[in-house]
Each structure stands twice: as C-alpha cells, then as structure tokens.
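PROTOCOL LOG
Step 1. Enter all chains and additional molecules of the complex.
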Amino acid sequence: MRFTKDHEWVELDGDVATVGITAYAAEQLGDVVFVETPDVGKTLKAGDGFAVVESVKAASDVYAPISGQVIEANAALGDAPETVNAAPEAAGWFARIRIADPAEVEALMDRHAYETYLQTL
Amino acid sequence: MRYLPLTPDDRAQMLGVIGAPDIDALFVDVPASARRAALFDLPLHAGELEVERELTGLAARNRAAGDGPFFCGAGAYRHHVPASVDHLIQRSEFLTSYTPYQPEIAQGTLQVLFEFQTQVAALTGLDVANASMYDGSTACAEAVMMSQRVTRREKAILSGGLHPHYAAVTQTIAHAEGMTIVRQAAAIDAEADVIAAIDAETACVVVQTPNVFGVVTDVTAIAQAAHAAGALLIVVTTEAVSFGLLKSPGEMGADIAVAEGQSIGNALNYGGPYVGLFTCREALVRQMPGRLCGETVDAQGRRGYVLTLSTREQHIRREKATSNICTNSGLCALAFSIHMSLLGEVGLRQLAALNHSRARELTAALDGVVEVLTPRFFNEIAVRVPPGLAGGDAAALVDELLADGILAGVPYSRLAPGAGMDDVLLLAATETTTTQDIAALAAALKRRLGQ
Amino acid sequence: MTLTSVGRPTRPHPAISEGHASLTGGRGLLQDEPLLFELGGWDKTGVDLPAAEHDASDLGGLLRTTPIGLPGLSEPETLRHYVRLSQMNHAIDLALYPLGSCTMKHNPRLNEKLARLAGFADLHPLQPVSTAQGALELIDRLAHWLKTLTGMPAVAMTPKAGAHGELCGLLTIRAAHEAAGHGHRRRVLVPTSAHGTNPATAAFVGYSVQEIAQTADGRVDLADLAAKLGPDVAAIMVTNPNTCGLFEREVIEIARVAHASGAYFYCDGANFNAIVGRVRPGDLGVDAMHINLHKTFSTPHGGGGPGAGPVVLSAALAPFAPAPWIVHGPAGLTLVEDARDEAAAAFGRMCAFQGQMGMFVRAYAYMRSHGADGLRQVAEDAVLNANYVKARLSAEMTPAFPDGPCMHEALFDDSWLEGCGITTLDFAKAMIDEGFHPMTMYFPLVVHGAMLIEPTETESRRELDRFCDALLALARAAKAGDTERFTGAPYLAPLRRLDETMAARKPKLAWRPEPTTVAPAPLAAE
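Step 2. Run joint prediction.
Step 3. Record the structure below.
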C-alpha cells in the first residue's frame, strides 16, 4: 500500500489500483455521512479531484493519487458511508482505477514514510 | 430613544470599564476623512404616534384589494387568512428567533419546518421539500440551475405559458451561471409545445400549470418526452390552492416542482415577502438548494429535529455550494403551515372547489360579454378585450374601470409589454370574490359595450 | 376565637429529593408535542367554508384522484400545537441572542402593526400604480434614507435577502464589465474570513473565486490583494466592518488599488449596524453594497427569514440595476417593470415583483423612529456594548485581536480553553443551560475555535452584565475542571445534544405513515 500527502492510499493489483483515504484522514474527518464516488469510465490525472467525502460539518475533495481510468466505484458506500470510518483502508475503498503509469505508484510514500510524514503534522 | 436602553450614565461607566476616553476612541480605526461629525440630513427621531401618523397616511393613499371588487391574480392571490395564523406567527418565540442553528433551543422552529416540508411534499406529490425559498420565481430559477447539476447539460426550455417574471428571473440568474435559456413564445395553451423543442442537450423543460393564462394542463406526456431525452421536468405553480383540486406535479411525472406559496397563509403585501416552495424526487436531494430539516434523536434517545445535509450549503461548501441562499422565508413558511393545518385535507379541497366555483361563476357572467380564452381553468382566466372596450387595450380598460371602483385584473401587457397580447386581460376569482363583485364587473363591461 | 384549620397547606414540603422525571413526557410548562401528522386529524378542519355552487366536472381527468395526506386541526387544537412548539424556542424577546454577524436586535412591535395596515398588506403587486401611490412613496422614501445613510447615488430595492443582494450586486458589476467590453473579467477576490455567501454568490454568477490573505491584526492583507489583482479580476468582495468585528483601516486604499486595476469594490454590508449614521460606505470607495434590512434595520428574523437585501450602487453601476424601479413622472410615481423599456443596460430581474414590501414598511418605520440622531446612537451603542463585553470577558477568555477596539462584535479564540478538555462547542452549549443563546461559533474560519459575540445596541447594561457574569462563571468552571458541565450540555434545554451524524447519514426529511398507521381514506373528488 502506498500513500500521498493528501492522505489517499493506493493498493496495486496488476494494472488495477484500489484507492481510498487513510485511517488518519478518516479519523480527522470524524463521522463520514456521505461519499460521492466517481463515475465509472471517467479518466483521471493524478491530482484531479475525483471524489468528495462529507462529514456533518465539512465536505472534502479527494484527489486521484495516480492517473488512469475508473473501472469501479464502491457502491456499498452509498448505503453505508460509515464503512469509511470503520475500515478506511479496506472495505471503505472509494474506487478501482486502471492505471496509466505504474511509475506514479512507485513514486508515492510507503507506510513507513507516510507515518513519518504524519509525525510532522 | 425608546429602543435604546443605555443611559448617559451607563455609557460613561462602560467607557470607564473599557478604558476609552470617549465614544470616538472606539471608532479610531475609521479613516479620519470618512468620519462624519455632523448628523445626516434626515429627520430626527420620532415617537410612535408621529410615525404611525405618517405611515397610516401613506397606506391611505393605496386602494386596498378589499376596498371593492377585485380580480387581480397573475402570481399573487387574495385569499382569506384565518385570524389565528397572524396571531401565532407574531409570538415572540417564532417572530424574534434566528435560523435554528442551535437545535436544543430551536425545536419549535425545527418541528414546524419538518411539518412544513412534509405538507409541501404531500401537496406536490413529490418526496422531499426544502425549508423554503424567497418566492416562486427564485425557486424556479434555482430549479433550472439544479437541473444542470443533475444532468450536466446546459439548456433549459421555458414554456410560453410560464409567468413572464419567472422566465425573466430564470433567464437572469441561470444564464449568468452559463446556461442557455430557450423561452418559447407566449401562447394561451402553450405547455405541450415544449415537447417539440426537447433534444439531447436539454437539461430541463419548465412548464406551468395552471399557467399564466390560467390554463390547467396534464403534463404527463411532457414528463415522458423529457425523461425519454434524459431531461428533467420542472412544474411551476403560482396558485398553491390549486393543489387541492388538481392532479399533483408528482403524480404527472415531475422531477422538481416549485410553487409560490403566498396563497396559503400570506397576505398580498404588494409583492413580498412570499414563500417559494421547492420539492423534488428523493434521488435528487443532494443537489437541492436551501435548508433542509431532518429527524434525529438527542443524547437520551428522544426524537428531535436538526438542519441537515448542510454540506450542500454556502456556509460549508462556499464556492461549491448548490446555491448561495442563506436567509429564506421562514416566517412565511410558518404562516403557510399553520393555515394548512387549519384547512387540513378536507378544508383545502373545499377551498379549492370554492375557488373553481367562483371562477366558473365569473366565466358564466362574462359569457357573451368578452371572449374567454382559457379552455380549462382553476380560478383564473384570460379574456380578450374587444375593440369596443377601451380600444381593445386591456391596460386602458383596467384604468377605466377604476372609476367604477373595480380592480379588474392584470393586463398581460403589464407582465410582457412586447408580446403582442395587449388585448389579453387576466382575471382571477377566489373565495373572497362575491357574487356582487362579479355582477359589478359584468355590468361595468356591458355598460361600456352598450349592452 | 374561631379556630379554622381546614384548607390547603401553604408551605412547601422540605425538599425530599432531586425530584423525578415525569411519567408521560411533559415537564411543567413544557409540553411534549407530537407531530401534526400524529394528532389524528385526517378528516378534521379548522375552517368553515360555504359549499361550492358549481362543481368541477369541467376539469374531468385533470382532477386529483388520490388523497393528499394532509391532517387538519380545529382552531383550539391549532393554537395548542403551535404555542407548545413556540415554547421550545429561544427568542430575542426572551434573552440576549449574541449571534455574531447576525445582529439580533429588538424588533419593535409598531413596525408589525404598520406592516399589517390594509393599505400595505392587502395590496396586489400588479394593481395599477395609480392605486398604489402610497406604497411607491414609501419605497421611495426608504430608498432616500438608504442612499443618504450610505452616501451612494442609487439603490436596487428588489433583492429579498443578503445573499440575493450579493447576487444582484455581482450581476450589476458583471453587466457593467460586459458593457465596457470587459467580459473577460471573471475572477473575484474574497478574504479568507468572508461569509460563505460571498464565494457561493461569485460562483453562482459563473466567476472563479480566489482568497485574499489576512494580516496578523485581522485585516485584509493589502500586499496580497495587490498581487492578486489583475486584468481578469471583476471585483473584490470585502465585508466592512469585517467578520472579525474590525474596521478595515486601509479600506480607502483597498478601494483605490481595486479601482486602479479596473475591478469594482463590492462591500458585504452585513455589519452596517456598527457604522450606520457615522460612516458612509460611499466615502470609502464602495461601488455596491447590500444592506440586510433584517439586521441593521430590525425587521424580524422570523426563525430564518424573510429578510430584505437592497443594494446601494455607485454612479458607474447604477444604470445596470435590475427591473423594476421607481421613476417620478407627471402623474406621480410609476414603475419601470420591463428592463427592455427604458434602459437597455438593466441586467434583468431578481424576483417576480417589487421586492419585500412588508419588510420595507417595517424598516422605514424603524428608521423614522430613530431618525438621524437615533441611528447614530445605534452605531455608538452597538460598538460600546461590544467593547464592554470584550473588556469584561477578557478577564477569563482570550480575545482574538486584543489590541485596539472592536466594532459591533467581539471575537474570541479558544486558546484560553487549552487544557480544560472542552471545546468551543461544549462551552457554547453550556451557555444554553444558563439561559443564553450561544454566540456564533467556528466562524470566521481564520480564528481557531472562534466565538463571535454581537450583543447589539438594544441590550441594557444590566442584561450585558448578566450575560458577562454567566460567561465568566462558566469560564472559571471550565478552568476548574468541571468538565461534565460542558461536555454533556445542555442539560436543561427541551432536548439534549442532537445526533447530527444520524440525521445526515439516513436523511429523514418528511413524516411518513408507519406501516401500521391507518392511511387516510381517499376522498371523492368534489
């Protein structure tokens, strides 16, 4: 699993990346009440806003950690947005993306680097 | 000054606590060039009696609707409002409270909003209503902009039966945001004409029933055509009492229904404040503008209400909000809700039936006097002013009939001067219209026609 | 003597215990009131109407065939329902309502009475103007007061609230740019501390929004503003006095640099109460400013509205104001209602009719009552009261900008709560138990845990002291570790803290019949 400074995570399986927000981000947001997931088929550039996650008091854009095309969105979040709080780095994933450039994933932080980064916040 | 509790002594002592030598010291950040030492050139303070005298004098220079026969409608309707409505909305706890942002001490307002939303959703036959908009026209513009968010298309088609002011407001606001607004030419029985204009770029079609000419339309086929093209149907109603008699927008397939709610609980007020009703299908709720009240529980599990889904709104989403609206028409919504509670389904149906009956009576009285242009009406009709009456100019006729003490409706040219319909007069009848009023109008017209 | 020992006891029993929860949900004067839909009035009505003489058979298939689902109540039940609900609300008539940026001041009842005169309330917006001369005269007089108080030459009267006024102002600015061939100016600069309506409105008219930084003393950072101005900037939107309750000392320079770059200066007039009668925005270089009649000029907030938001305009912008407007003619006052009529420059129309006449009557009565002298006193007392609160509360709380005076509202941050284990929200909820409405919290966004207190000029010194004493006592309790008083608050309100997460996750936005509820019987069409 790889991480961004904006608190998204990526897990690569072949050329398909599963993305979501980190446990740290989920805790900072508080109770997630709604997730707007991207349309399947949408082409993303790394850094594009591709989803919105809402708590009662804030709406936060989620940025695509890597470029590619959305092939699946996590429909289960529609009825159960609380999954993002319960299992942010597993069942609370946001989308699956067919990646354009594996090097983009390699360039992201590993868990150790991310955790070190969190210490600085 | 009677509204200012501080005494000179208070002020002096308070300045002492603050540590300021005088009041000017508190305005020190104002640039010296902008500090006005002298009083402005306006009258000095006045007692209640004096103010009342001036405003009563101004009011007396207006001809109130109730002063004689009265037939004006066209988006604002004179109805009887029960005395208890106005009493209740003047209770301090409703009148002088703020937006219910602290739900623990605003359950009164919040429960009212929840009840209001439920009533409005029921009336329009749709799932979800918001806590009100400024008026029907701004609700219409907001609905059109919402259709853009839902469909991601840019074009809105407005029927030729839509109230021209509603069309103008929508054109002004939705066009500014980047939408293309197609206004169809005014025509009496215009609603179905929108079908031919729907295409794959259409975000929404906006139809009105009863429309500005009073025509009632079953919009089911329009809904089907819109949906087949992936567009939304927005149904506008300016006379909320009609919901008591006619098929609801939801029943006919509307995706969004907006209405002017003034007719229920609210006075004419020379145009405002009114209350915009806004409802839609549940699936569209996250694209709605305005405040929403929802049910929840408190820390001890007791039922209560809060403002919810606020991430749509400007105070959280800022430039990404669904609308910039903040203040709405809360107290007018309260008046609407109280009047609707007094009516109930039984009373609303009676009231609507009575309105339609009065309009039938009016139509019958005008038979053979002027041509009635509205084929199917609720409580409002369009008539053609013949050349023999004020030269066929509806506006001139209305002015002439003032001499008879009659406010004889709204000339369509007042709403749309360039539409080439200067001979069209809009006449409304409500439960406040009497048989004598109708007879007076018919007699005045006949006399001028030499009948 | 005659010894009479019958009758009721006249002293309370010595306190036996803390008391009991009620058995049925009521609490003394506070009634437990169900929803309207649970009161069972499916076939009830509180009105008596005559029977219709003609039927609706002419409408055939257009008639409603299904029940609407609306309960009714008799008149006494209606009074009970709404009076019971009302008693669960805080109100300005009950106690201080210190919401910063909202100007919750006294609402004179004279204004209510006058707005209900038949000559104003029972007036149709489209009846001939010859029959509404008094109404037009009132609007015209109100416009004169607004122009005089702001030092601006024109005013658009129709906007129905502050945000609607902002929209009107930006549409006017946009029309002026387009008329000058500057339609490419589509960026708006807004301070980070702005009301949410400012960026939302800019986006609403298709503009992009860029934030301006703030200086350490809570004002617009002039250098940052100058750096961000450019040939594509349409306007700056600045609130003055700003949302930190401070006057923008450099406002004249702000206007100058904006104008030098070809941008207009839109001022958010929400805080006009601080300067009314003393400072004219026109003297500061403002091009457009909305005035919330429901704030500065005391039309009641009504639980969320209605308001009114007339927009004063500079000479450069005046020709682009929306229809309708009043003109003086030989036969008296008349309305120009069609923008195409006389001034092709008008950008369009903001609402169906002439604006918020009911609010105009109230605001005008308020202004006339105060007069030029009283309005000046309004600003002075509003500012005095805020500074008094700031001075007194500074004993325990930390003002966000301690140096220099504030204007009409005092802003505190939450640094004084550090280590107390409670948040701004907890503190505010505990205020409810002391009988006060919380202040505005977590706004402006530029101050951590912000608490923004606007007492207004209609509070007496006694009430201010009562309020300050309560907050100081709470602050001392917080610092003394009485955490539970705050984290569980409010304890004494009609309800305890509400679950907003649940409300948002599974929105329930209307009452629906329980499956077991007997649905209303379909009524035959009349």
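Step 4. Note key features.
The mean pLDDT of chain B is 97.
Residues 83-339 of chain B form a domain with the Aspartate Aminotransferase; domain 2 fold (CATH 3.40.640.10).
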